[in-house]
């Protein structure tokens, strides 16, 4: 089985390539340093920071928002639309679930960044 790290795309912005090289050298798995949505952003030329290098609040907002929207949509399709739950109740539940998920992800990412001694994005990007 080949366990080598896949090459970093030349289409990614230069600061992203530098960050990914540093994360690879620190032993961060590519699944944590370059999630699929971020790889799409980078292919589009957007120089957004890998989530493990961003601050706590940024991770709460970004991971929480994506989770809340996705989970809320799935819950609406599968359960809420036929349950008689109010729109405000649905939105409140999705926001709280997103907030809880965002905080958990931000704690995990901060712990990993500190454990590996990684810098924040602002210290890598020019």
Automatic annotation (TrEMBL):
Show the InterPro entries listed in the entry: DUF6404
Give the transmembrane ranges.
40-67, 87-109
User: A single Pfam family, by name?
Assistant: DUF6404
Tell me the keywords, alphabetical order: Membrane, Transmembrane, Transmembrane helix
Superkingdom assignment:
Bacteria
* Official protein name in the record: Transmembrane protein
Q: Which organism is it from?
A: Stenotrophomonas lacuserhaii
């Amino acid at each position: 089985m080949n366990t080598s790290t896949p090459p970093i795309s030349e289409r990614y912005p230069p600061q992203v390539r530098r960050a990914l090289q540093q994360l690879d050298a620190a032993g961060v798995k590519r699944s944590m340093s370059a999630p699929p949505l971020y790889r799409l952003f980078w292919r589009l030329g957007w120089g957004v920071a890998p989530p493990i290098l961003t601050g706590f609040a940024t991770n709460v907002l970004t991971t929480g928002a994506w989770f809340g929207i996705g989970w809320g949509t799935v819950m609406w399709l599968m359960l809420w639309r036929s349950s008689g739950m109010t729109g405000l109740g649905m939105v409140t539940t999705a926001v709280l679930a997103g907030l809880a998920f965002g905080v958990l992800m931000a704690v995990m990412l901060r712990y990993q960044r500190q454990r590996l001694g990684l810098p924040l994005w602002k210290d890598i990007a020019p």
